[in-house]
Write a structure and sequence with these properties.
Layout lengths: L10 H12 L6 E5 L6 H13 L17 H7 L6 E4 L10 H10 L10 E5 L7 H13 L4 E7 L7 H4 L3 E4 L5 H10 L4 H10 L4 H9 L1 H18 L3 H11 L3 H22 L12 H10 L2 H19 L4 H10 L6
Parallel strand pairs: 1-4, 1-5, 2-3, 3-4
Length: 333
């Protein structure tokens, strides 16, 4: 089921990166893009292992790293002395210029124990403009023994000058049937495997997190129950919800992401695409909303929620934002 790097899917990317290692033709910078939890970090770390594994033949074979040597174990745990992991303090936060300036000092040093110094810049779309410009200078002047691995949702979120200096790998979700089979191998029964494969929309990392951590699924169910209740709530009740539930901005951001997935399903249902639904356990609610909305209205609600997620990053008044979003919610008949 998995490929020779023990990853589900992305076989074309694994094959390409394997050949880069085997031929000594690795680039100085790579950009892994795709939806969160689609496997960007896992692929980048597997590539880092292939670059540093102490048990590889010379010249390296294109098939695999050993996964057992000191280099492989330390890279896998993200605790290797030659691996620098740079990211915002929390998901949805800001990667700051000071972090890139510190990085620029360290990359000038020779590797401690591996062949390369590897820099893993996670969710680089969260970098502020100063940090992005500082990385551009690092990309232009990085020593030959330094390899930079960036992850981001999509290349359009980054400076074109950064993207042009990277080998770009656009990762896609794995097919739902393939992920269902994989989840059954991981211990899920047939019904749960089908549910989680759809719910994760083919994103292996998210599916595994839902399988292994029941609290993530509980949070999701709680917030979708609240969504359903708000559709029948009065304006006063919606404002009361906004006041109570936005004090924790990170939790509210995660709530909006769940609501976004539901509005996406509604829009697809209105457009006649019932096969691509993610929240398959919410089909009745989705159908009711689809019967009440036209495509333009469904798209407007989707865009409002998506814009709200972006506005939260700009430190906007969260309560006011929640009130505006909830005012646009239809009154479910």
């Amino acid at each position: 089921m998995t490929n020779h790097w023990n990853l589900l899917g992305h076989n074309w990317a694994v094959d390409m990166l394997s050949q880069h290692v085997a031929n000594g033709a690795q680039r100085h910078a790579y950009l892994f893009t795709g939806s969160p939890s689609v496997g960007r970090r896992s692929l980048a770390l597997a590539f880092a292992r292939a670059l540093t594994c102490s048990q590889l033949a010379d010249p390296p074979a294109p098939d695999a790293f050993c996964g057992e040597c000191r280099e492989c174990r330390q890279i896998g745990a993200m605790q290797h002395p030659d691996l620098h992991v740079i990211q915002a303090e929390k998901e949805g936060g800001i990667l700051k210029v000071e972090q890139i300036r510190e990085l620029r000092k360290s990359v000038l040093l020779s590797p401690y124990q591996a062949k390369y110094r590897i820099v893993l810049l996670l969710r680089f779309q969260e970098a502020n403009p100063s940090a992005a410009n500082a990385l551009l200078k690092t990309l232009e002047e990085a020593p030959s023994k330094v390899i930079l691995l960036l992850t981001a949702d999509n290349p359009e979120q980054l400076l074109p000058t950064i993207v042009s200096r990277c080998e770009v790998l656009r990762l896609r979700p794995v097919p739902i049937p393939q992920l269902e089979t994989y989840l059954r191998e991981k211990g899920a029964d047939e019904e749960k495997a089908k549910f989680l494969a759809h719910l994760s929309a083919g994103r292996t990392g998210y599916a595994l997190r839902l399988l292994e951590d029941e609290s993530s699924l509980d949070f999701r169910n709680e917030k979708l129950d609240e969504f359903s209740s708000l559709l029948e709530a009065s304006r006063v009740e919606r404002f009361a919800y906004a006041e109570k539930n936005v004090k924790d901005k990170e939790e509210f951001r995660k709530t909006l992401l769940l609501w976004l997935s539901l509005w996406r399903d509604v829009m697809l249902f209105v457009a006649g695409d019932e096969e691509s639904l993610v929240n398959i356990d919410q089909r009745e609610l989705i159908k009711k909303l689809a019967e009440q909305l036209n495509l333009s209205e469904a798209k407007k609600l989707l865009n409002a929620t998506e814009n709200g997620i972006g506005q939260l990053k700009r430190n906007i008044n969260a309560r006011l934002l929640a009130e505006v979003i909830l005012l646009d919610f239809p009154q479910l008949k």
